[in-house]
Amino acid sequence: MDVDIMNIVKQYYGLETAEVGLIRESSDNVLYKIGMGARSYVLRLAKRTKKDTIVFEAQLIHRLISIHIPTPEWIPTLKDESFATLPDGRIGVLMPYIDGIPVEGDNIGEYARQAGELLASIHNATHKLKLEALQTRTIFSELERAIAQQDIYIRSFGDGKEFIEYVTHYMGAGKERTHDDYIIHNDFRPHNLLQTQEKDLFAIDFDWACYGPAARDLAHAVVEWSMLDGQNEPNLHIQKMFLEGYHHVIHSPVSNDFTFWAAFSCLSDTVTYISDKVDRKEELPDRVRSYMYKKFTYYHGLQA
């Protein structure tokens, strides 16, 4: 694999390297650290990113960099393209290596307010922004996966029918509330922010970005920062700090329907987890189970 990565970096970017290290792998991407002596890079190889999605992300990153939003720039290929398209269909993006670590553990509380400010800065930058590139992803894309696979859900899970009813309800209610006034990050969780020794934050992984309401992005972020996997309820101090930071910086008022969008985003993430299992033909449990579904039931219950 190291030889494969070395060849990609040399062929598409003209860089010679003898050092390759795996940073992390997720269901969406594989990240490699590319050592280049005094300077290092990160190569992101996408597992399922579509061409239109990557072009959209590239244009968004260019816009954010131009107004000094802290996010790694994309290094152009030898052909002066924003990303490399490999013969097997994989898409590679090369970025400078940021000497930092994902926000996690005790640092979540320390950086919550700063993270809220950064999300608000992104929303300020993308308010009413329309990019040339087409983006087929929407905030409803994951819920639509469940609808397309509803026969499998209902057949496989004892509570599958109830789950699909939730999906149908939240899709309908979400479309009644949706105003695509922003480009949202759509995955602004702690591990998608890097903290440096200077205590700066860099936003990364905009590959799920799409048009949508700021309220949805804010709610999803607050849930991920204040209610970690396995917790039964949110940390209200962290929630307060994140929201204070956000509202201190945001220019336009955000709709006050937090609990709805919190439940919506948790349900959407649950579908991602389950439908990925379906696509990989993995064995499914007898009932819908995931950390995000537990969070969904909490926020759904607050609306009763």
From TrEMBL:
<dbReference type="InterPro" id="IPR011009">
    <property type="entry name" value="Kinase-like_dom_sf"/>
</dbReference>
<feature type="domain" description="Protein kinase">
    <location>
        <begin position="9"/>
        <end position="304"/>
    </location>
</feature>
<protein>
    <recommendedName>
        <fullName>Protein kinase domain-containing protein</fullName>
    </recommendedName>
</protein>
<dbReference type="InterPro" id="IPR002575">
    <property type="entry name" value="Aminoglycoside_PTrfase"/>
</dbReference>
<comment type="similarity">
    <text>Belongs to the pseudomonas-type ThrB family.</text>
</comment>
<dbReference type="GO" id="GO:0005524">
    <property type="term" value="F:ATP binding"/>
</dbReference>
<dbReference type="InterPro" id="IPR050249">
    <property type="entry name" value="Pseudomonas-type_ThrB"/>
</dbReference>
<dbReference type="InterPro" id="IPR000719">
    <property type="entry name" value="Prot_kinase_dom"/>
</dbReference>
<dbReference type="GO" id="GO:0019202">
    <property type="term" value="F:amino acid kinase activity"/>
</dbReference>
<dbReference type="GO" id="GO:0004672">
    <property type="term" value="F:protein kinase activity"/>
</dbReference>
<dbReference type="Pfam" id="PF01636">
    <property type="entry name" value="APH"/>
</dbReference>
